[in-house]
Amino acid sequence: MIVRKSENQSRDQVVEVLRLLFRGAHDSVTLSTSLTSDLLEAVEGDIMDCLSRVKSFSICLDSRVDLAAVRTKYPWLFSSPKVHISQAPGPIPHWIMVDKRDLRLEESHPFPAPAGGWHPRSNMTIIDADPQIANAIEQEFRSFASQARVVKP
Prior knowledge:
The protein is an alpha+beta fold. The protein has helices at 11-24, 39-42, 44-53, 67-73, 75-79, 131-145, and strands at residues 2-9, 28-33, 56-61, 83-87, 95-98, 102-106, 121-127, 149-152.
């Protein structure tokens, strides 16, 4: 297990980690997010490639997300049959889990993003997580996702 805590990551550093995670996905991706910065656009190609390999790609959106804006900005997410999208009834922690073993956990951050769309972040990336850690994160995701409203089955 490799654990890396990163303080005040720049946008480019976050993009690098996201690319690593999406490029390494083979079975599933679970994502809880606000989709408010341009990060998704920066890794769109990596996500598209990921969708060609994985069996499932689940997104739970934070309650503060403007769903209409997300549909307009990222229509390709809504066209993939592998993507399941729900929206939580309240604020949620933001993270990514890939293949139930690789994780990126975000520190809480301002919502919406400040002017300019970026603020430095502190995050933790865990590669090849201990199964107990991965299971705990997955159960937490399922806990708030089970209360979420399905937006795209």
